[in-house]
Amino acid sequence: MACTDGVCCNSSCGGACQACNVAGSLGTCTNIPAGRDPASECGAVTCTGWYQGWGGTNADQCFTSQNAPAAAVDCNGAGSCETAAQVCPAQPANTMVLDCNNTCQVKNLSTCTGMVAPVCNAFTPMPNTQSCNSGVCQQNIPLCTAGVPQTCPSPMSPTRRDLRWPRQRLRRMVTDNGGAALCSLANAVESCGGASGCQVASCEGSYLNPNLVNADGCECLPEIIGTDACATALAGGSIHTLTEGQSNTLVGNLATTMDGDWFRVTLNNGGSPGYRTGLSFSARSSTDIVFDVYQSDCTTLATYTGGRPGTLCSGTSSQPRNLTSYSFDPLEQTGQCNQVVPAGGTQCNSATSRTYLIWVHRFLGTAPTCATYTINVVNG
């Protein structure tokens, strides 16, 4: 016999949650009834991984359980202290670990309990659309996609209302997604590209966007004095008709890689030194721009060094093609065409007039730009 817990006991009774003075069993080592811990033998219990349940705002927030302090842990009636499974579910809420979206999600009631992690199920509201931004950036997008709320895209760059006024004179501020913006893509009808900003949807009038860059809008207005086909230029009147001593210019631009401009000019013979041709670039925005010279029709290349004396130019394969200049030698009237005395060059350029067809085009096929040029045309 041993004296334990103030009574004579049939054993030393040293186990946790056991005593010899349990009512009804005095003198016998007996398990302490569940829910009691008279000797404060049980300590605190960690509740990591345990969930207290759904609660909070709209009852759709999941919280973990607080750790159980020693005062909350008793004997379990089986000769040991209560376990986490017995005390953690009853502990107060600790930290919120998941908040279901009020519009696009609903709580899964079989989760956020015991040691089952919380889950929010996808929910599709009806109607599932929202209107975003305004002006050219106005668009409708879903409220929810697979349980994920959708945010209106920010225009990020100017947008503009079409007010049917001259675009270079009138602009109006509009508000998109809370921010003021002004769109001014030149000569263009804009569309909104979200984070990409304003984009060229189409060009106004005859304007083109050869470089495909949105920032400068539709930057190119094709010339109206040239034509795209030789037959059209040949059938039409001459753009310039020049007598000896006169000059003028041909002005245009090449908007695409394959773009080409045809011009018809006529040089008349005044009967003294005869017509004398001079063609050269006075300006060109790209060295890729060159010209070919035809005379009388669309197949006959103009007279050229090698074919007859008296011309100076730098072409391709001894032909007046891919030129930057074309001109009769200033000394032609006195020193060429078998003339030995100043006779006015009548044997070389004595025709009443000469019609030229000039084709301006790209030679190297560089990327398209609005490439401008000016060609001086001189007679004499």
What do you see in this structure?
31% of the residues are buried. The chain has helices spanning 84-87, 230-235, 332-335, 346-349; strands at residues 2-4, 7-9, 18-19, 30-31, 51-55, 61-65, 93-99, 105-107, 120-122, 129-132, 139-142, 144-145, 148-149, 174-176, 179-181, 188-192, 198-203, 240-242, 247-254, 261-268, 277-284, 289-295, 311-313, 325-328, 353-362, 371-379. It contains 4 helices and 26 strands. The protein is mainly β. 5% of the residues lie in helices and 32% in strands. Mean pLDDT is 79; it is low at 156-182, 305-312 and 331-347. The longest helix has 6 residues, at 230-235. Strand 1 (2-4) and strand 2 form a beta hairpin. The strands form 10 sheets. It has a 5-stranded antiparallel β-sheet, with no helix packed on it. Strands 18-20-25-22 form a 4-stranded mixed β-sheet. It has a 3-stranded antiparallel β-sheet with strand order 5-6-7, with no helix packed on it.
Question: Strands, helices and their partners?
Answer:
Blueprint: E1 2-4, E2 7-9, E3 18-19, E4 30-31, E5 51-55, E6 61-65, H1 84-87, E7 93-99, E8 105-107, E9 120-122, E10 129-132, E11 139-142, E12 144-145, E13 148-149, E14 174-176, E15 179-181, E16 188-192, E17 198-203, H2 230-235, E18 240-242, E19 247-254, E20 261-268, E21 277-284, E22 289-295, E23 311-313, E24 325-328, H3 332-335, H4 346-349, E25 353-362, E26 371-379
Parallel strand pairs: 18-20
Antiparallel strand pairs: 1-2, 3-4, 5-6, 6-7, 8-9, 10-11, 12-13, 14-15, 16-17, 19-26, 20-25, 21-24, 21-26, 22-25, 23-24
